[in-house]
Amino acid sequence: MQQEYEHGGAVDKISRQTGKENLLDFSANINPKGLSKSVRQAIENNIDNIIHYPDVEMMELKNKISSSYDIAAEDIIVGNGAVELIYILCHVLQPKKVLLTAPAFSEYERAAQSVNAQITYCNLLEKNNFELSLASLIVALKEQDILFLCNPNNPTGTLLETQDLTMIVEHAEANGCFVVIDESFMDFIANSEEFSAKPLLKNNHNLFVLHSLTKFFALPGLRLGFGACHDKEVVKRMQLSKDPWNVNVLAQKAGLAALNDNTYQRRSRNYMRSEINYLYEELLQQKKIKVYKPSVNYILINIQDSGMTASEFKDKMLDKGIIIRDCSNYPGLSEFFIRVAVRTRDENDVLLEAIEEILS
Ligand SMILES: Cc1ncc(COP(=O)(O)O)c(C=O)c1O
């Protein structure tokens, strides 16, 4: 039987279980600026259009994604969230062997299991601050069909540079291995051109770059993401394997408005940069926890020295009305890891106070 996977953001479920309302959610990594005004307006303006089926070609949205991320429009496939595309890709490529780094986002594992692939893990070691060993990865990808990489990595926040990715993708190609690079948190990074694999698409047919639009644009309940691959056959087979109306009318219009809103994007990045530093620096002042340096809007913490497990810590935070992510179900992490999102200054201060009280 397949194992159940837990994710952050299960606010309704936790409310039902605990009877608590108005919980502060630090378990999902969503832009705390919330919906941009223009996205809200686009949704309101298009509400009457939900009496029609969505545009199956999504050309307007694809063209906007193409110009925003400098990817050829014909290489793009749009999904009902990025996660949908992970499943469609596995369904289409039918890998027998899948290589995952651990810890990483759990849906790669679940999608691989859904097509009965054999999974191998390349462990990111705590003693190396969870930095990927390129040498180990290169050895491990021999005889693999698909490698999944998450960059920036969730939950560790570790980041690979484009030049490392180039090397990985080329080694994979030489070994007949397809590479999926998940850049779902890349929009939070100002100098993303140093880390993104999107420029590699043109020259590497064995590369699929995945990108969620639900994190940075705060649309997880609406669902929107895209992927890109320069292998026309892969994109075509994915198009043919999906629900033709997978991206609803409002999500298409919201995506267009979001990508057109440069002010929201600039303000969000500026705000997040200082707030990430603030929360990180304040957490470093706490004794009995080890805080890993974040690159984007979430922070991994080892609480072993507190004498509590992540599950106990999570329950204590919940008593204070705060949801955090217990990371003990990530392969490659012990029962002492938690992850917190970076939110608004007021919310971050509430989180810090709660952590201080629990640790004192
Ligand atoms: C690394 C990563 N990729 C993809 C997703 C899912 O994105 P979406 O909401 O677009 O399906 C998540 C959600 O937590 C994630 O952490």
From TrEMBL:
PROSITE patterns: AA_TRANSFER_CLASS_1
One GO term of the biological process aspect: cobalamin biosynthetic process
GO molecular function (one): pyridoxal phosphate binding
Enzyme class: lyase
Names of required cofactors: pyridoxal 5'-phosphate
Entry EC number(s): 4.1.1.81
A Pfam entry, by short name: Aminotran_1_2
SUPFAM superfamilies: PLP-dependent transferases
Gene3D superfamilies in the record: Aspartate Aminotransferase, domain 1 (3.90.1150.10), Type I PLP-dependent aspartate aminotransferase-like (Major domain) (3.40.640.10)
Swiss-Prot/TrEMBL catalytic activity: O-phospho-L-threonine + H(+) = (R)-1-aminopropan-2-yl phosphate + CO2
Keyword Lyase annotated: yes
The name this protein goes by in its record: threonine-phosphate decarboxylase
